[in-house]
């Protein structure tokens, strides 16, 4: 059964990557209008209109927030859950390290952790998790419907292995998403991305954003 679940998760992850690749292909038709063209690689998904969108969730302090409340500067979004035994802590620690490297070079970026486990991830648990990762990290949860909607907006995948098991694991995609105020999604990073490489690439996006007047592409 574990092998079946594993292959199912791998297949779903490949589907996510395939979808992102298609988005990149479509967006390159307008590369001449892309202020971030020099920052993208050949496998990067562009096209803010195809990935991401508005959301309403609950933050780690129990307050209802929207995407406009959360994404007030360049932000790095990750979808996971606090009970995750290894992947989520490692990925978020990597993201936090990239954010710290950027801060050392004068860039400001907010790491965001969106829970796909609303049944167990209370705002209090999210706050404990994010406080361990980075002082700026924001934790978000919501109703099952709200979480499903934002997951669909970002084309992410997750599946609870056993809804009746209080200790169940959740299969999920592991991309991290770079988003900007008004512009929205601009880039994604896979699990194998190193914090130093992420910092360099994110810095390129922020520089291009600033040179274009920060919100000229809204």
UniProtKB/TrEMBL annotation:
Transmembrane segments: none annotated. Pfam families: SCO1-SenC. This is Regulatory protein SenC. InterPro entries: SCO1/SenC, Thioredoxin-like_sf. It comes from the Bacteria. Cu cation binds at residues 84, 88, 172. SUPFAM superfamilies: Thioredoxin-like (SSF52833). Keywords: Copper, Disulfide bond, Metal-binding. Disulfide bonds join 84-88. Belongs to the SCO1/2 family. It comes from Thioclava atlantica. GO terms for molecular function: metal ion binding.
